[in-house]
Design goal:
Layout: H1 40-51, E1 58-63, H2 67-73, E2 77-84, E3 93-94, E4 108-114, H3 123-133, E5 134-145, H4 165-173, E6 181-186, H5 189-197, H6 206-210, E7 219-225
Parallel strand pairs: 1-2, 1-4, 2-3, 4-5
Antiparallel strand pairs: 5-7, 6-7
């Protein structure tokens, strides 16, 4: 994997750029690439969860579906719940993370909250709920969109925020001790442009996806541990 872009990548003459299939005014896919394969942000999210798979254990809560609980927890999971704002198939807890008084405090060993908090206007209250319902020693695995489009039939009416690694860290450090919060960002120019167009992860090479070029964050990940 290259450590920095080669000089040929930095010296394209003005007027000589070949945009190819990206020379268009609408995206190739308007559903983040789900219709073409694995969306590029999900490539980074699943890599993150794979690395943290040992945290997915015991009593696990996942927001939206139990897909990642099943995929990365396996037989380490003794019980799992699925939380949604609205009742839908597979939901076991219908609640709003802004408050959720029906969920007892100190309940879950692990919470998986992917691509959700940007949809909640009262972010601080949602983070406080996540902290409250974690057991002491419990782990929160959360992800946030970086560079992305924000319009789709299901979520555009809820989309409120865009986070950066810095704002995510500061937000969670208001409750979690600084040494218990670890934030990473993933992406580069090619990954970001491709994701905006809805190109799938399978359409790029691993070295193109894994190359890190700061300031072009496609996905932001956070692991936070509640103190014992």
């Amino acid at each position: 994997m290259p450590e920095k872009p080669g000089s040929d990548e930095l010296s394209v003459a003005v007027g000589a750029i070949d945009f190819g299939h990206f020379w268009r005014l609408v995206s190739i896919s308007n559903v983040w690439g789900f219709d073409r394969g694995l969306p590029i942000d999900r490539y980074y999210i699943e890599q993150f969860l794979q690395r943290q798979s040992a945290d997915v254990r015991g009593y696990v809560l996942e927001v939206c579906a139990n897909t990642y609980t099943t995929k990365f927890g396996g037989d380490r999971v003794t019980k799992n719940e699925v939380l949604n704002l609205l009742q839908s198939p597979g939901t076991t807890i219908q609640a709003d993370l802004v408050s959720a008084p029906q969920i007892p405090s100190n309940t879950f060993d692990c919470i998986i909250c992917t691509q959700t908090l940007q949809l909640i206007y009262d972010l601080r209250s949602a983070v406080a709920t996540l902290y409250r319902i974690l057991r002491p020693g419990g782990i929160l695995l959360a992800t946030f969109p970086g560079i992305t489009h924000t319009q789709d039939a299901g979520w555009s009416q809820y989309w409120c925020w865009s986070l950066t690694p810095n704002s995510a860290r500061r937000l969670f450090n208001e409750l979690f001790p600084p040494d218990k919060v670890h934030v990473e960002a993933f992406g580069n120019v090619l990954a970001a442009v491709s994701f905006l167009h809805g190109v799938a992860a399978e359409e790029l090479k691993a070295e193109e996806l894994d190359f890190r070029y700061p300031a072009f964050d496609v996905a932001i990940t956070l692991r936070a541990s509640k103190p014992q």
